[in-house]
Write a structure and sequence with these properties.
Layout (H helix, E strand, L loop, with lengths): L2 H11 L4 H8 L3 H8 L7 H11 L3 H4 L17 E5 L3 H35 L4 H35 L3 E7 L3 E8 L2 E9 L5 E4 L3 E6 L2 E6 L8 H8 L4 E2 L5 H29 L11 H4 L2 H16 L4 H18 L1 H4 L4 E2 L3 H10 L8 E6 L10 E10 L2 H12 L10 H4 L13 E6 L4 E2 L7 E11 L4 E11 L2
Helix pairs in contact: 2-3, 6-7, 9-11, 9-12, 11-12
């Protein structure tokens, strides 16, 4: 016998496939095939490894001594299953896999699209929107490639599997698979139970994942105490639970999506209640009202778990969104004393400018005395923002244009003593008043600390901002 024939003999004696032996030797299946056909010979290192695997001498592998018959006792056969898959069964399997893959991708693309729309709508930093567009593009390409591979694999499976007969034999520590086609054996495999990575449980069959390869087994042919079913029940962490029924799956997906949208719904309600968006934290309590949605997702997730269905996404999303709702809702209490409708600064501005500020539609005053300032020279005490309707806004704008104390362009020296909230690109008019020197838009002659008021007008928002701040001026 040649060295290749001897290797083939010992490999089959141990019920090993060419792929199994290749994995132990860290070589490809094609290399094993070439050895057995006599096209190439193993290296010295591989011969030593083969000697250890087969428990034989190197001389025996090289054919220099007769093959010693091993007295290894044959393992006891526990079960034998023989079956094949019909065209309809294969179609159903492919459909379930394609549906699962498509659902995951739809959810992913929906989430990315929502975040992208949110970032664009709220004028988020352009880099964030660009990143999301890039993610969307990359995953679109990957998705199309995955669909192409899946279609190719599906055609291969449809052409191959229905024509094959699967013969499974179970033993104490392993099982063997023999695949025959037209009465001829085309593949044999020996698989240790310990090497099973995952058990994928479908409605009509289960699949064992071993070294990236799937082994399909029909459920209806298995004994109630089959080794495969025992392995599944004894190793729950390796089991990928079955798909839920259509009814439960639809409810699960709807709850999952609604739970993810809860934060957007909450923001929408806050915007609706706040109107002009001047004091949003006051209305963040609405997130507490929405907590039943993530709680329902959590409860239904555990219901699905008890039924043996997929449940993790509902539970995880539920807990995360519930935590965020509680955190956002707490803003109403955390910032309770920060926001009010105090009109003290309105009255003060009227006295300073000697005008009657028209009736406003909304007002929000922030008490920032306890906050920290980013500018060591300007410490804000209070800020009041008011919004006007069209008629009142026109009336206010006329008064502003008629008063030359309002500046459309602020000189550089005055700019550095104005409020830190003043933004030339945003505010059309601005006036700064020093309460201690009774001067408008004027840099103090002496260094010191001054109480100032800055009044800013924005025509786009129809908004008047009045800020009371302390200026520390160094000559």
């Amino acid at each position: 016998m040649t060295t290749g024939e001897i290797i083939q003999y010992h490999r089959k004696r141990l019920s090993m496939s060419q792929e199994d032996l290749g994995q132990k030797l860290l070589v490809s299946r094609q290399t094993i095939s070439q050895w057995e056909k006599g096209q190439t010979v193993p290296t010295t290192d591989n011969l030593i490894r083969l000697k250890e695997i087969f428990d034989v001498s190197v001389d025996e592998l090289l054919g220099l001594e007769a093959i010693a018959k091993k007295n290894t006792p044959e393992p006891e056969l526990l079960e034998r299953y023989e079956f094949s898959f019909s065209d309809n069964e294969i179609a159903e399997i492919q459909k379930s896999k394609a549906t699962s893959f498509s659902n995951k991708m739809i959810i992913f693309f929906t989430l990315i699209s929502l975040f992208l729309a949110y970032s664009i709508f709220n004028n988020t930093y352009a880099g964030v929107s660009g990143f999301l567009v890039g993610v969307l593009f990359v995953f679109s390409v990957l998705f199309l490639q995955a669909l192409k591979r899946m279609k190719k694999a599906s055609i291969n499976i449809v052409e191959r599997i229905p024509k094959c007969v699967y013969i499974y034999k179970t033993f104490d520590e392993h099982f063997t698979l023999e695949i025959t086609k037209n009465g001829e054996t085309v593949q044999t495999q020996k698989v240790m139970y310990s090497s099973i990575e995952q058990v994928i449980d479908y409605k009509t069959h289960i699949e064992l994942l071993v070294n990236g390869q799937l082994y399909p087994i029909k459920k209806d042919v298995l004994n109630c105490d089959s080794a495969f079913l025992r392995y599944k029940s004894n190793n729950p962490l390796k089991v990928k639970v079955q798909k839920s029924s259509d009814k439960h799956r639809v409810i699960s997906i709807l709850l999952f999506i609604i739970t993810l949208l809860t934060l957007y719904i909450g923001m929408g309600l806050v915007a609706l209640l706040d109107g002009d968006g001047l004091s949003s934290p006051k209305y963040m309590w609405v997130f507490y009202i929405l907590t039943p949605i993530p709680i329902a997702s959590i409860v239904y997730g555990y219901f699905l778990k008890r039924k043996g269905y997929k449940y993790l996404k509902n539970v995880i999303a539920g807990f995360i969104v519930f935590g965020l709702c509680c955190a956002f809702g707490s803003f109403s209490f955390i910032f309770k004393n920060m926001y009010s409708e105090n009109d003290k600064l309105i009255l003060q501005a009227e006295q300073v400018m000697d005008i009657d500020i028209p009736q406003y539609r909304s007002i929000a005053t922030q008490d920032l005395r306890m906050g920290t300032s980013t500018d060591p020279n300007r410490k804000t005490q209070f800020v009041t923002k008011v919004r006007f309707n069209d008629v009142e806004n026109i009336q206010l704008l006329k008064e502003i244009k008629a008063d030359d104390r309002w500046l459309s362009t602020m000189p550089n020296d005055v700019y550095y003593i104005a409020s830190a909230s003043y933004i030339p690109a945003k505010h059309d008019y601005v006036v700064t008043y020093n309460s201690d020197t009774d001067e408008y838009n004027t840099v103090p002659q002496d260094g010191g600390t001054y109480d100032c008021i800055c009044i800013m007008y924005c025509s786009v928002l129809q908004e008047l901002t009045i800020e009371d701040y302390t200026l520390t001026y160094t000559k």
